[in-house]
Predict the 3D structure of the following.
Amino acid sequence: MMDQVLFYFFAGLAVLSGVLVVTVRNAVHSAVFLITSLLATAGLYLTLNAEFLFVVQIILYVGGIMVLFIFVIMLVNLDVALHQVQFNRQTWVAGLLSIVLLTELLAALALARSGGPGMQLLPAPAATAASLGGNTEQIGMLLFQNYVIPFELASILLLVALVGAVVMGKKRI
Amino acid sequence: MQAVLQFLNANMWPLIDALVIVGVFPLMAGYVVLLERKVMADMQARLGPMRVGPHGLLQPLADALKLMIKEDIIPESADRIIFWMAPVLSVTAGMLAFAAIPIGPGFLIANMNVGLLFILAVSSMGIFGIVLGGWASNSHYSLLGALRSSAQLVSYEVAVGMAMVSGLLLAGTLSMKDIVAAQAEKGMWFAFVAPVGFVIYLIGSVAETNRAPFDLPEAESELVAGYMTEYSGFRWALYFLAEYSNMIVVASVATTLFLGGWMRPFASVHAFDFLDFVPVLFMLGVTGYCLYRIPKQTGWDQKFILAIFAGICFVIAAALGMVFAPPLAFLKVPVLGAFWFIAKVMGYVYVFLWVRFTFPRYRFDQLMRLGWHFLIPLSIVNVMGVATALVLHRQAGWSSWVAFPVLLVVTILLAFWLVRAGERRDQQAARSAA
């Protein structure tokens, strides 16, 4: 009961603020709605007993990336952007595409529920948080044992990006 | 209705803890402000607030009343909703972090297994209160203060996080309760095992709470009051509350991670068991001092108020003493633990005050250079040093009395080298500029 209430609350909040991110004209306001949306997603992780993911989502996206976003938005002159006429004329195309996507998702869900060929809902994981131990350890084990190479590759990629940014940003190193 | 009652019943103690914290904390913040003014006065050979109540003891209440009935001004071209929301966001983030802080083994709202990360996450959200408030005020001073604040926070968060990692490696867990348990098992506070990490955390936490000498976001001589220039009345009070709650949160994290949490000093040595009586004796001493000062007050009202304070102190002393009675022995660890925890937090806050009145304010580029060129490299070296020492101790079988000091010396030598390299770079830059 409580779980369902929380799920619909967080999911509704995430979707609503996601819509507001793209419809609101003021860039700072839409950044605030993006924060709300990210926090609601973090709340969804929490209802799935994924505390580590919840915390990392907040630290990285909300506490790190969004701070930088807002930092940049505040430096840009907002008044100019507010008075510009929006030039995209793709509202209808976008609306049509989202309706197609929605039908597709609903159809997939309906097919899976009816148990069509090759279409079954995955069985819900029976394990609870208590039987798994801390999921911080679980994620650590997975990252550093099963997925060491992808993990290291991703960090090298980030390092290269970082060095590249510095090289491009500085005239003389 | 039934579900709500069931929920309340199952979570009674955490809810009561939360209510106590939310109720008591603003009062405590008020008295930390009084403490700050008194310490500042003492260091500058003044008396500090003396008018409201004996020795200014009622000053926090008077200030709170004043701030609440003051006119609340919103600038005309401000973004009203965000202007309204920002201080609330700041204070919420500050207070939410208390959910994971163990004030003694029995006084903990939520024992999460990601407790430390939760505190880090929640307190990183407090920055939005500052940034959005500064932007919404539509004032250049506020905006500059907000920009400085976010730049400072993003820079120092890395060093502080790395300093925490050195403590976490030793504890092997993220749960605040288990971190203290790990220190009890080791028989030593982590501040002594990883002193470099502790010092980095100390410096970084001063910067993260925007306190002098790193209080650039609200530097009076440059930015009026920084991000809160346009705020007045109760909203301003909320920002103030948020600042002090952040201070107490970082002090609590330092206490838990590096200073042994709720354990008394020398918790594992039975020869020091007499230290259990220190809390009672301390509170009795405060009571005695209040009684001693009563005849020196002018006017019966001042005498009466001081007598009330003496009474409160005596009640606390009696409550602390009661746990030595055999039927209440089960309360001994939680109650004395809470006393030691709060004492350590206050000691850490005292260091904050001391630093504030000792050092002149940094320039912004100096602040950034200290963060990026010194603290971050040093904290990375420190993490590697602690990890190496742990491997040598656990895998290679070195004694921990050898492994940790050796790696500590290496880390400190590297720190000196970093300082030297920085100085040389500065000289080179100065020469090429000339």
